[in-house]
Design a protein that fits this description.
mainly beta, 9% helix, GLPGLI family protein, 14 strands, signal, globular, 2 helices, 265 residues
Length: 265
Amino acid sequence: MKRKLLTLLVLASTGCFAQQYDGVHLEKSNIDKNNLIYKLGREFIYTFKIGENETIVYLKNNDTDIFELTKHGDSLPLSEIHMTVLKPKIFKRVNKNQTQILYSLEPHSNSISTTGLSENEQNVWLHPTRMGFFQSLETCPYPYIKLGKPIGYKWSDSMSIGNHWSNKKWGEWENRLLLNYEYEIIAREKVVTQLGKIDCLKVRATATSAIGSSELISYFSEKYGFVKLEYNLFTGIKIEMNLDQIIDGPILRDAREFYQYKRKQ
């Protein structure tokens, strides 16, 4: 338990570092109260698939900086990402002016992290999970959509990241890496999910930098949020995440309450 809480603190502190995305609209008040999708206490459960060199691989172990990929799917791999919306205590919000979320990997999760998202009338934008292997997502565009815009609408943004995010699996660099993002709403499509067939806006986003380019195709529903995420990393690794379930649970404040709640289940 102590180790998990230490992991949480480390990941939370790194999550606050160098997050530009200056084009994102952040609220100064009612940050959580007017959320229509990412409501307090709500848990979003995603399954994920990883492809490397045209081969499906599985995530066997995943900790703060240590992970293990395997080709053997019968070795009890981690298979789900759970995203829970928290109500932090006063002055305990990890990311200023953002709704607080907690990520955990299941089953037998050995690390969790807290970070933030923004949901309002202008945009929906969220930090991805960035534990272990999923630090790779820091090199990709974040899930992000401008609301009320037509098909064909484009926008740009940027962010620089430190070399503590680098890894030979998804790209290495020295000092800081500047990522320039281009987003475009390219279509409206029906996506087949475990929740049914969902009408979504399809957004293509690219991140270009000195070491190459990465891509995110996201599918956004006004009712369910981001229901499908397709990442293509600098090195060609592919990650697909699919929303399978949404649970309205109790309102939790922090990692301690999260663990207490999970033990009772």
